[in-house]
From TrEMBL:
Keyword Transcription tagged: yes
Biological processes per GO annotation: transcription by RNA polymerase II
Region feature (Disordered): 35-94, 291-310, 494-520
UniProt biased composition (Acidic residues): 291-300, 494-504
Residue ranges of domain RPAP1 N-terminal in the record: 220-260
Domain of life: Eukaryota
Stretches assigned to the RPAP1 C-terminal domain: 351-416
SUPFAM superfamilies the UniProt entry points to: ARM repeat
InterPro entries noted in UniProt: ARM-type_fold, RPAP1/Rba50, RPAP1_C, RPAP1_N, TPR_RPAP1/MINIYO-like
The protein's name: RNA polymerase II associated protein 1
Keyword Nucleus among UniProt keywords: yes
The organism's taxonomic lineage, starting at the top: Eukaryota, Metazoa, Chordata, Craniata, Vertebrata
Alphabetical UniProt keywords: Nucleus, Transcription
Record-annotated RPAP1/MINIYO-like TPR repeats domain positions: 1111-1336
Amino acid sequence: MLPRPKPGDSEDDLLRYQEQFLASRSEPAVRIIRKVDKRKGETESSEGLNEQRNRDVVSIQGIPEEPPPLNSVPPKKSRFKTQNVQFEDEDPEERINRHDKHVTVVLSKIIERDTSAVPVTFPAFTGAAFPKACHRSEVQGQIPSPLGRKSIFAQKMMLQKAKENGLLAKEASQSAMERIPTRASDDVEMKMQIHQHPDPTSRLISGDGLGKPDSASEVKQIQWENEQRLKSMSEVEILEEQRKLISQLDPRLVAFVKSKMSSASLTNTDLEMSRPDKQRSENEEIMELETTAEMEDESSDRDLCPPITVDELPVKPKEGWVHMDKLEPEKLEWLRDLPPSRKKGTKKAMQARFDFSGSLIPPTADLPTHLGLHHHGEEPELAGYSLQELFHLSRSKVTQQRTLAFTTLARVLHKVHLGELASMVKGRIISTLLDAGLLFLLRFALDDNVEVVIAGAVRALWALLVVPNDEECLDRTFSWLHGMFTFPLLPMEESDDEEEDEVDENGKKETVEEKEARKQDHEVAQADIIKGLLKMKLLHRLRYILEVFRPGPRVVQDMLEILIRICRHSAAAASQVLDCPRLMETIISEFLPCSWTSPSMQGHRPTLERPHGLPVAGAMKLIRVLASTGRHACARLLNNYKIRARLLRFIAVEPEDLLLEACEAKKLSLEALRMWCVAAGYGQACDLYRDMYPVLIRMLQSIPELMSKETSLEPFSNLTLQRAETLLLLLTTVTQTAGSTEELKANQMGESESALPPPPPLDWSQVAGLQPFIKASLKTCLRWLTEPIHWENVHMLAAAHLVYLGSFYSQLYVQSTFCPVDTLQEIEALTSEVLLPLIGHQTVLNMIDHLRQFSALCAPTSCAASREIIHGLPGFGCSEGMNVSNLSDAKSPFPFLMGLFYVLDSITNVHKGLACKFLSVLVSPRLLDYLCSSCSALPSFSLSSAWLLRHEYHLQYLLLKLACKQMPLKAEVSQQITVYHKIAMAMLPRLLPGSEYQAHELLSTMIFNPSFIPEGRCGGPEAVDLSQLLRLGDGDQCSLSSQFTESTTGTLLREAYANLASLRGCYLTHLAHLEPSVLRSRDIYLGHTPFVCSQMLSELTGPVVPSDWAFLPLVSLYEQTAKEESSGRTVESVSVTSKEAVTHCLQWLLILETWHEDALKSVPPAAKFCRLACIFLSGSDLFRERPVQRFLWALLLALCRPTQLNALDLTVPPPGLASFHDFYSSLLVQFEAVSFGDPLFGCFLLVPLQRHYSMELKLAVFGEHIGLLRSFGVSLAQLPIPLEKFTSPPEDSLPLLRSYFRALVTGSLRLTWCPVLYAVAIAHVNAFIFSQDTKNQEIDMERKSLLRKTYFLTNEVLKNHLLLFKMPRADIKLGFEMFEKLPPIRDKRLNAVLRKENGTD
């Protein structure tokens, strides 16, 4: 086998391989064939054939030798190509002999040019011995070369010709810019001068199409007439005709004419030769003429300014400078002064330009050029750089330009996050930058090897991802009640119905993880920016920068905050941060060391060049956020990375002794305490409590000193107060953990020992002694209530005290050491000394009064994001400088009132007799006003509002619990109990993930509590019956139809009220799927810290309970039935349990619709109608059950009240339905199959047939389902809707009118079968045939046709009904009133139609 060439073989090896191959006489891998020259065709000379055979052509199987022809144009033939082909192995002598020609062949073709008429010029005589040498500078200074570059000799000859023709050198070298006309009139003048000496031959007209022998004379005659016509026209007329002509001609023809004129002008006149603007077309000139004078004034200075001269240069070129001997004006334009800036504003949108600080520069700003804001090509007179120019600079090869671009982009993004540019820029800046590829630009810039570029890219990425105000708000609310728990910053998922699930070879559907892995980087980043960055290996690059480049303090801080933002995205993202190789090791070893040296001191302030080797508060915050994502992540940090030792190191020492800057030391100590709080929230790191007990007691005893006015004036006093609040929160979580120890030890004896966490090394006796210290500290804090200004600084610290006391008493009564007598006396003392004076203080009353001002429910704009929100990068929407008050504001009353109500709830659980002493709070007019306002509010569902609403719902829940305890005791609360029931009903469908336990408690203890529905025991059912009787006397159609129901509404309400306990059980059963979430939420709310899995709540996908939760049993049964029918099983009847669930649901809906109508205001009437109609589709006999019939009739009557009926909109699909038309068609099919003429079912089908609803619904009845009219036996007395709703206004749809008439004539619609629709059809057909509207001829012809057909009907009864109909009336058996005889106007109309018909016949 022959060897093959390998990489690394030399040229000698290749030659040896070739010799071996030729010696073996093997078949070559390719075949050499002769390829015919397609330009020569089939006729070739023998010489050409011989030369063609010498060409090597490679042929590949499966591919044609010649490409297919692209067009039908014959191939071009070259006479020289074959003769010029040469080969290396050809003999040069043979090639010379073949191409050599005899001298006679050349000389015989020489023709001498006639020079008799050429003038002879002699050179000028000089006194010099030799002619003077021609220098370049002399030629260039005398005459320019407008037609491109020319040699020195050519320029000299042009100068000599100009002198011979009598032209001055100065005139010949005049610049082209001076000859260009500055106005339209000069341009026309120039053209007129050209026309005064016209060319005798036309450049456009050739005369070929005239077909005459003297076509040349005809062309000259046409040319002469054109010239005379132009001479007789004025300048304005020429321009006007030119404009008209160009607007009428084909653009391609105009381009052809301009090309002819430009080519001729370049060869005929020196004027046109000297134009430097030869690319400018006449189309552009016309566009200039059409612009307004205002635009000409603005652009005249910029467009027509002369080129720069040597005198205008700031630095004069000297002799000897390389490449500076020739002046190039087009390259020196940037040295000229800038055009004048815009003097006046304009309504026209302009490109946004920013300075280096990220601020927007107005177009009218006149800034000096030394600021460096004018170095851009577009609009050089405007200062600042656009986003496009910054993108261009970011890809520059110059390091300073890239750094400047990234830094400026970072400052622009930061101001966008602050909301400073929202009102000044039209459009979305961040969305525009992301669409332009900002994310990938920054990611690529991080891979640079220049440190300053990396710093700029990190800063820009920080400005894109991190919102400092969000972090400040989260830190401020950390010490609130359950403030450690936050929502993940995940983008809300958008439903993608169009994307189908792909199936693999085995028939399995693709999982979500496989879909994510299949997506490209840009697809992932478009939906979720954080996921896109993680997919692009951002974490590995950040670790490399920290480890290898070791950047400065600001870059390190930015990178830590970027990692914090990634961890807040989700638990999965935090897990990737924790699992990134050497990332956490680098951060902890470099920025959280246990020992370090003091930074260098300059004066009195420490300076920091490199933060490596020094503790950084941002690193501790990153550890804290990582730990909050899950108990397992927290355990890894504590055990694998030795965070316990660092907590001891940073907490045991006072911040002043940490050898760091004062601010950084306080932040580090604060973050260490917060990290300990997070760990204690899982029942972990509680062993540190024993070691740190003396330090904690010392810190606790120093809290009263921190609340003094002198301390508030010290620098960083806010950090000091936050540290005290965090200390109290730490003691709260430790107390909750100690309170769960006995329960864990007791449960370990059971069977589920392996599923329970181990009990913490802490018991109740170790924390019981903290309560006296905190109680005394609270009394000291409450002394500042009399000074409102200072109270604003310490009220959150007071709230932390109250939260601790509430947690202490909530855990106390479940301990084995609980002493009831001592505890009750202690609680009574606390109530009389602290709580009662507190709730009656004017400052607290003012705080209750301010609830509406800071509420996220009553003031939705307070939680609305004032900055740009990106779908792929969600945030909490916090912005500084907001004009409205915010629930998380430092002055917000919510944290203090939550702590107050929490401690009131805890002590009333222990001492129930104290509940009546707090009555004044519940019946406060200010509080009731706030609660009523929150009931009527419609909160928006978004991440920016959810984290605030969660705290507000918690406050309302505590108020409801207090009201529930007061109910059997005080009558004053019973008078206002309806308000609290409305609050409970309004809050249930609003509760967010993490509040499942509160939803369960609302359903269990409040919503179905008979005490919260006083109408049932105070004559409510009787009042409803009396109201119906009064409306019956007034002739109300809804009340008239109620006479045919088996039971009155009052009787049904009395039955439902007595069955409230069963109703509660029914709904709790249908919400049983939430049990795991309820248990997790219960552990969080009750403080069972060892059972808490994560302090990051579930993803914010929607409320816990749907807004139509009251219809949940009906919807569940309908979905179950539809699922069974889709699998091929027919559902004939439902189970007894399902029938009871449907009955209970209808009973609860009747209570709400009658007594608490506002509770279902979030459900549109169309959605109510569809969900009630689902009963008819859930089995074939369910709607015929007697309990279901009774309550469904009552609900239909409630739904047909005028207010509900007017709000019933069926044009838009209700929530949960793709199309109402399809749903109604299924109802029609079900009615034909199983209804047996049931009047209740018929009334439901009649509701969508009202006049103002879609014509398609009526056509469905009178078209494909016309057979059901035979069993549509709803009488006029049973109709719950006024008949006028069906007959007014008159129908104008011809297809529907034809269907009405056809059904009447054919007998498909009869009075005895379907009296309601019979009256409707008679009314509409009568109104149509006797209408006087004749605007449309087609409608008029149809009207006359129906009238003639009506007159000739053989059914006299139907004929009289159609002709003598007067008006609809539901109170008579016929359904409408008739004339005794035909009115004169109708008689006249009928005779006119019949007479016309007879006349035509």
